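Researcher: I'd like a structural prediction for the single chain below. Treat it as a standalone chain; there are no partners to consider.
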Amino acid sequence: MARGTHAAVRVKAMQFGQTQSQHNDIYAVIDLGSNSFHMLMVKVVAGSVQVIGRVKRKVRLAAGLNDSLVLSKEAMTRGWECLALFAERLQDIPASNIRIVGTATLRLARNVKTFLTEAEQILGHKIEVISGEEEARIIYLGVAHTSNCEANRLVIDIGGASTEVVVGQGFQPLLLSSLNMGCVTYLERYFQNNELSEQNFNAAIAAAEREIQSVAEQYLAQGWQNAVGASGTVQALQEILVAQGKDEVITLSRLETVLQQALACGHMDQLMIPGLAQERKQVFPSGLAILIALFRVLQIKGMTLSGGALREGVLYGMLPQLQHQDVRASTVQSMMVRYFIDQQHANRVADMAAMLAQQLDSQWKLQSFEGLSILRCGALLHELGLLIEYKNHHHHGAYIINHAELPGFTRAQQQLLMALVHNHRADLNKDILARQTMTSVLLAVRLTRILRLAVILSMRRRHEALPAVQVQAHAEALHLTLPTGWLEHHPLMRAELEQEALYQQQAGWQLIVQ
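Model: Treating it as a single chain, here is the predicted structure.
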């Protein structure tokens, strides 16, 4: 795009912006990454963030960085053309609600001022090139604000020119590193001939292992209980695993299986792995090599995908009113407000579900399973679809959950939540329970059965009407015991429980009510 065209975009944006009212509750974050440029736009609604726009363009800025760390004019032009598109969306957002950050390639480029001068003129806003350590800190905060975890966790983000590695707890990063390896730079260095050969992969993995060894000792000494990935490489691998019938957990053995699938393709043009999206193919082999090295050197047992990273960390840094909150709880509360859910009743059902789960823990070992948190969320949101209509409100609620942005939930957790809401009443759909990948079908079924009983036992919508109930499990048979004479005095509840026993029997489970 010519410089005159950039100027025309700026003038048009200024003229258009003068006629628009500014929206103080709308925020925008732009991340000038080494592989892609991203723009995230959100609106603050009911104490939570609602995504109203995402724009992503593959710029591959790092591919234009030569051995002398000079950024090519071609790469800079690709970046400027992308930013001209972004500029149109920024025009009526207050400047204080916009933050633009540049990462590894812009940190390294010796002629970065040339790029920044033109880029800032196009956008009409300053660009902040952040240090590697600051990038790692912000990435960790983005993960903390979008993925619940009380234990120490390892966070890894493989970027285009750097890889950030963080150990933290809650909202506090404890150990930060930014390593000089990325999926674009390793693509240019080790896969330049486009061959998916053992020689290329081994060279890339060995180089990454050497880079990681410089920090491995302190990370292994620090330790962690959970590991999450915040990059496109991790997302691509999760998509591959799910497409190939596995759950969402990435392990070293699964990485090595995918590596063999890539080797069997032989050439980048022939890279066809089930579940690998077309847009991810170009930098996938180099990202895979780096991730294998990280698993080997840091002895990572398993990894899941985070709900956010750098952009979300930058965003929440502009929203002090939403910082250091229980993100999952805030998301559920926001959904309850937006869809006019009876919060008192929702909490009544959630408490009943928790009581039943506690009684069943000795037989079903539920307390050590994170699904209890999803069970509570399912109870709180089980009437989500009532705003649409009653008869199929469980289907409507599941549809909303399946298609909503839910900070604090991974995609797999969101799928389990959707399955619980869909199955909390009427006919059971075992296929939906089988398709979720957060846990086993057996555990998903158990949570569903608990939620269904909690909904029925709370149907009077009055706390004083809740029965003193006891539940036990003998294998998968549930025995529900109510006070003597209670069923005779509550014929509607008795009829509902008898119908529920039939529903469960049709699905292959036994429910005995006495």
